[in-house]
Amino acid sequence: MLLAIDTSSYVLSCALAQEDKLISEWTVQRRLTHSEQLIPHIDEMMKVSGVLRKDIKYIAISNGPGSFTGLRIGLASAKMMAYIWDIPLIAVDTLQALAYNLKSAQAFILPLIDAQRNNVYASLYSSFKDLWQVWENKADSIDNIINEAVKHGGPIIATGEAADLYKDKLISAGIQIAPFHMRCCRAGSVASAAFEKIKNKQFENPLQILPNYIRRSEAEVQWEKKHNQK
Fold this sequence. Notes:
The protein is of the alpha/beta class. Helix content is 37%, strand content 26%. The longest helix is centred in the first third of the chain and has 18 residues, at 68-85. Its EC number is 3.4.24.57. Pfam families: TsaD (PF00814).
């Protein structure tokens, strides 16, 4: 049994899964306080699903990019559980997990996460056969991302919270928008991606793993500017 967690955005999602079988998934889009809600959600989901702690053999966490605070909360919780329970920890790229929402779409998948100030975290995946990454994760303006994506032809389907935010621009460029239930970060997709890593024994050291922010937070940038001026 695998416990998967995603707190990379305002969405709080956790899931219990076995290979090729989703046991339970709780996904809430209410801008809840992850630090207060994550553990109670996991406890309640396990209780309702009849799953005991000893049944859980792996923990998977969405490791970024995404919300700086959300990533820290989710990763800290996953690291703690993996260490205390002495079970393997799997880190899943958030953009990859979003692409897994549309793994069988037979299209190019454009996962998008808001990075503020008309910028997004993005990658491009192909799902025409097996799901594979066309280009690496990057942080760039939404206009540059759209221009680069459409060079590959189509169809292209955008997913992720920023697909809502920049819906008009994407549609104007001929890019489709994923259905609403496939646009949010879902722990079930984190679990699906994690099982591929389990096959290859790609585990993380819970004492060493860090979030994949891609870039520094605005607060860090402003702090550095302020102190470099002195």
